[in-house]
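Contributing new complexes? Match this layout with 3-isopropylmalic acid.
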Amino acid sequence: MKTHKIAVIPGDGIGPEVINEGVKVLNKIASLDHTFQFEFTSFPWGCEYYARYGKMMDDDGIERLKEFEAIYLGAVGFPGVPDHISLWDLLLKIRKSFDQYVNIRPITLLKGAPCPLVNFNSEDINMLFIRENTEGEYAGAGDWLYRGKENEVVLQNSVFSRKGTERIIRYAFEVALKQGKTLTSISKGNALNYSMVFWDQLFEEVGKEYPSVKTYSYLVDAAAMLMIKDPKRFEVVVTSNLFGDILTDLGAAIAGGLGLAAGANINPERVYPSMFEPIHGSAPDIAGKQLSNPLAAIWSASQLLDHLGYEQYGKVILTAIEQLLIEKNVLTPDLGGSSSTSEVGDCIVELIASNMNVLQTQKN
Ligand code: NAD
Ligand code: IPM
Ligand code: MN
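Output block (do not edit by hand):
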């Protein structure tokens, strides 16, 4: 039997609650398949760890994570530890150290999911955001001059390297080509007169190698407006680190909410482990009450299965999520229900078990 070694970092706030449900789902699928199993190793890193040991993760944490095939993470950040410390010393550190330069975030309105936009349904909202994930506005470079003085100046630099920009754009073209979809680049060349001019130039340059992919280019402000007014025009989307961060929360809002928004941080070369995590944060306002929606984390688990080569099971999870949304009996409060986090996870497990039973019967 094949064993997949997965590192689990539940993290802060609702992180542990939602990850618990994702692990349940992954174990269920493995147990029904019989040919593979998961070996989960949990790391207690996060803000509580920081309070106790003065650091977000162990000093050799990155080294230890290298031995895993993938990382499954809940959320990082909680009041009490400054966000820029907690995030830079754990989540962003992993994304960067493992060169997870592709952040894949599906903005797909599943059937049964609530949408605040009138006259749009699941056929109209089906985008795949491909966000640059290791540099750009998140380069972490800057300076603080004359601190505390009258002439204080703070610099936050963006870094767009040719290598970093070209590879994310190329990745997006490959996805669009494979899926037969259009590719939209979202940038801001009118105001950001170095970084985004460079981005636009590379988008055009790489595009020449993909003449069959139909492309569009929007300024980020207009793109935000169009995602609400006419979401159908976006299929595969490629954008920078910060724009991708902001637009995928916006996307989540029109596709069922943050409780349904999943993401994968991929190192395409597979030199390092990739990491799977919901888009949402630690939600301190509802943490520890079993009010959080685990579906985003469960959807991320389906991306993890895709990554390991079990696309058929990735689909089984999405089908179960959609069934749950359509039936509407077992949902968390953010989706208008009154079920708990673990009741939703249990229900997904049951749906998966009965769907896989049907698949098995059909095969025999
Ligand atoms: P958040 O995503 O944690 O919460 C925003 C709102 O959405 C809250 O009202 C919350 O209750 C709700 N929400 C989020 N996920 C939900 C879920 N699964 N089910 C039901 N409701 C959900 O964003 P925030 O409040 O701005 O950030 C809180 C902390 O999380 C901060 O420290 C922030 O830096 C961090 N954060 C971490 C990540 C990550 O680890 N990937 C992502 C975003 C924010
Ligand atoms: C996300 C989060 C992170 C980001 C934060 C917590 C650093 O918002 O994963 O969307 O900006 O990438
Ligand atoms: Mn975000």
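Reviewers usually confirm one structural detail per submission. For this one: The chain is about 40% helix and 20% strand.
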